[in-house]
Amino acid sequence: MCITSYELENSYPRIWKDDHASDLAPAGDEPAWKVALATCAAPIFFPGTQVLGGDSHVDGGLFANNPALIGLTEAVRYFRQPLERIRILSVGAGERAERISYEKARRMGVWFWRTAAIEHMMIAQARIAHEIARRLLGPEQYTRVNVPLERPYALDDYAAARNLIEPGAQAARVRYTDLIQRFFSSAAVIGREQKSTVQTLRRGDRPRRNS
């Protein structure tokens, strides 16, 4: 598992994971709830979170709104898997991008971009991650499921979240058979290095979180 957050003191992305490689910097045995707060601390909506002391973390979506490339890097770099053996199912939380014509873009000033810039930067980095992963793996090995939204939803508007149930259910009904066959019909193959890691964890050794 890779959990993302963005550290503001050093302006650097952080990925929390188990200690399974010698080049991963140890970050201590932080409680899972602290890491959860860090990865969910969406700017504007929630305050930053301190995990280690002397740090300041916010939502990892600032740099990995679609974390497909993080998973792909993990599989290639640390688990030594060739691209042809990697399968990625990327699940989005809905997306809505306002269409901006050339004429409108020419007239947009600070007032408009103060909110639109954040939305478009988040969508842009999610989509480029999607395109890179799709080109590296191909459509048979990489699939992204994301529902287009008719209107924007605020992160703290929990009452409106019920409106997302049916679009999500519809997407599931359409893609269910295909996704089950491609991603869930067989167990993942574990290599020697992965078996060694699993055996170590089963003996009760507690992994450290790293970045």
Summary?
This protein has helices spanning 32-40, 68-78, 102-107, 110-137, 165-183, 192-202; strands at 3-7, 12-16, 57-59, 88-91, 142-145.
What characteristics describe this protein?
two-stranded parallel ribbon, 211 residues, Cytosolic phospholipase A2 catalytic domain, globular, single chain, alpha+beta
| Helix and strand run | EEHEHEHHEHH
Total strand segments: 5
Domain module count: 1
In CATH, the homologous superfamily goes by the name Cytosolic phospholipase A2 catalytic domain
The largest β sheet comes out as: 3 strands, antiparallel
Termini distance? Answer: 12 Å
- Bin the strand percentage: 5-15%
Round the mean pLDDT to the nearest integer and report it: 82
CATH architecture: 3-Layer(aba) Sandwich
Strand order of the largest sheet: 2-1-3
How would you classify the quaternary structure?
Answer: single chain
Rg result: 19 Å
Q: Percent helix among the residues? A: 25-40%
Count of discrete alpha- or pi-helical segments spanning 4 or more residues: 6
Structural class, by secondary structure, is alpha+beta
Low-confidence stretches: none
CATH topology-level fold name = Cytosolic phospholipase A2 catalytic domain
- The best one-word shape is globular
Description of the molecule:
It contains six helices and five strands, in the order ββαβαβααβαα. A three-stranded antiparallel sheet has the order 2-1-3, with helices on one face. The protein has a two-stranded parallel ribbon with strand order 4-5. By secondary structure, the protein is of the alpha+beta class. It has helices spanning 32-40, 68-78, 102-107, 110-137, 165-183, 192-202; strands at 3-7, 12-16, 57-59, 88-91, 142-145. The termini are close together. It is globular. It has one domain (2-192): 3-Layer(aba) Sandwich (Cytosolic phospholipase A2 catalytic domain), CATH 3.40.1090.10. 40% of the residues lie in helices and 10% in strands.
